[in-house]
Amino acid sequence: MSTSDFRSRYLMIALVMWCGVAARAQNPSCDPSSDAGCASAAQVGKDVQQALLNANATGLSALQLRKAVLTLETSGTTTNGININFLIFTLKHQTKKGDTITQQITWGALPKPAGVGAPEKLKEVLARAIATAAQVAGGVTTLPLTEATITIKFVVDKDNSGSVSYKIMGINLGPSIDFDKVSTNTLAVTFSK
Q1: φ and ψ at 19, to 5 degrees?
Q2: I want to staple 86 with a disulfide (CB 3.0 to 4.6 A). Which of 20, 74, 122, 141 is the partner?
Q3: Coil, strand or helix: which one is 46?
């Protein structure tokens, strides 16, 4: 048997074994297709990006969104050293979270919007929090504003129908949250004139 045949067979066996491990390594307490207490990091990233666009459409109190940094605390199923799934634990997660991994996504500047809207009209809680932060930063007029960075901490909630929503810590998050069972995610938004 040649070396290339041996490598091909070894690779095939390793691939079959990995697929078998992946199929068996489903975490029963965190099933993304049900209401079992998790949400995908990709979905949260898309929702935050849409919230930034929606908040920017309000005019951001004549400020420009210079930079946004999203930090997600995620966890996954690990079997034989192979990470199978990375999922954000939600508000309803019942078991303690295992080892977590932090992912960070940075977006650049959004163009300064022409229109001016009211943050209160935004339906999404993250978009409203971003627009309200800009309103607070833009309201400081006694000193020249060069840059303002606001950090918004949030947790993810997934209802029985599978829809994902966000709870801002300090605003609409109750005091009975066990932080050993949920991920604390942050969105740091930087505004400038």
Answers
A1: -65, -40
A2: 74
A3: helix
